[in-house]
User: Fold this.
Amino acid sequence: MLQILSPIMRIVEVPMLALQRLLGINKLAWVFLLPNLILFGLFAFLPVILNVSYAMTGGDNVLLADRPNVGLRNFVTLTDCENFLDPNSCREDKFWRAVWNTTWFVTLQVGAMVGFALLTAIILNGKIRARGFFRSVFFFPVLLSPVVVALIWKWILQREGVLNAFLDWTGIGGYNWLVDAQWAFTWSVFISVWAHMGFYTLILLAGLQAIPRDVYEAALMDRASPWRTFRRITLPLLSPTMLVVLVLALIKGVQTFDEIYAFTGGGPGTATTFIIQYIYEEGFAGAPRLFGLAAAASLLVAIVLVILTLIQLWVNRRNVDG
Amino acid sequence: MGKIWDFLTATRGSTRLHWTDWVSYAYLCTGIFLMFGPVVWLVLSSFKTEADLQRFPPTLLPYAQQTVEVDGYDDALPLFVMTAGEYEGMTLAQLRRVGNQAQMIDPLNPEERLRVNIANREPVEEFSLATENYTSLFERFNFLRFFWNSTFITVTATLLMLLVNSMAAFALSKYEFRGRTAVLLLVVGTLMIPQTVVLVPLFLIVTELGMFNSLWGVIIPGAATPTGVFLLRQYMITIPDEILDAARMDKASEWKIFWRIIIPLSAPAIAVLAILAIMWRWNDFLWPLIVLTQTENFTLQLALNSFQGELTTDWSSLLAMTVLTLLPIATVFMFLQKYIATGIASTGGK
Assistant:
């Protein structure tokens, strides 16, 4: 690999050497930083600023110059509700359906996922043979692409699928899962937990293994019961890791799109339409393309994510400081 | 026997399995079934013929109806075994079927045509892998094109990302310059801006740069990642400055130091980042969905998603395509799972 690239690198060395003579060693750092900073600027910071101007303009033109200024009208449209809890009373009812779907989804998914991840991590941290093997078993689905995850489960859950065959055999009887709004939602939560649980298990397991052994030995000397040891030692010492896991899971949960979009397409109806899908459909999938509305909705999501990320950074820093 | 049992049930701490250990192993075995089962089922199903896929309840292994070549007939004829009626017990080949009656012949005595009720027969089946599901992908769809698009994006984006991020990490870890803290804060800031919340302006910028409907429009916007910069910087800080000073004494240029010393010494961190990048890029979905709207530019993920809409009944092609899409990642996983695990645990994901 290095051999293939080395001629290119030798060519790059010529201008770099000239710059080094010109700028001196310490200023050369900026040259090394430049490509990264340009990319961050163009594809992260500039979009944030532009997002605000998009949110303040209307029409379906992409070019900002051709977009009429509408002030805060997009936000007014989004938040024009008689009762925020009832999407039917809202002007942009789809947005509020997506908001409440996402809220429910994140609550259930994060709760179930972190719960199972914790249980799995604790079991893997016990006196288990072939721990590495079992760890990778639970981790395996994390690597699968969202579309693959969606198709695997669609194939299992279809009307004449293997799950219904099993349920027929047991006498319970099959069901057309993805046509029923509540079941489609439940299965969305399930496949999302299935696909991402291993990732959090891994982090929690690392957290458990970082707890010093002698604390447990001391508890054993004091004849503490296993339950008491768990409540009084494991949980408190694991809580920083738990917090990181919770915040990370929340950040990712709010952004859920890929696997559910491929799994149910947001349906039946809008039963599994989440906030990112709303943004995608308003801005890119439908005609007219309501970029302004999509940008305004993005801005609201961004605020939630920034708050969550700040909590995450604060938690991380507290952990590092001990 | 007893010794083997002792060995299998021995544990690290105590000598005997406690009931909680049994519960643990039961949980873990359920885990194997739940995590691997669906994927195994997918792979087995992908080798079934379309007719076999329609069967309910499904069989575990792929089966296909046996056929027989009979003199005087061009096509191979499907075989049935008679379960009732006057020919009970005989194995017959079907010529044609009209309503619930079928014209059959005995392969051993092909002259005589027999009429039977289709309720009185069952197909003769054998285990067989329908590899045509896979081969037809290459004939019927532009599968190689999608595969190439995905591979091109993954490889180019990973290399670009490694280069750009390691250059930045080098500058942030080995140079003292004014504004370093500001740059670090800037990098932290980008952590807060996931692609999903700036889709609209990102779309404008990519379009303005002429990268709409081009693979570069997927590759370039994600080339600089805060995770990558942090991961590499964390590792490069541990490389002693004395090595760099020694190289400078020998009149090595800074670029040469970066390329000849820093990169080889950071290989473990770069490997972890490379694996993560390959995973992210191969599985990427939302951004390619927005940028790539023409079928010939589709990645495998996009093709798979659009075909599942078009081919709702054609599960055989869809399943085979799903298997081929997950195969590269599954292979990488088998060989590198240890590194993936440590990599993800150390970065805390993207």
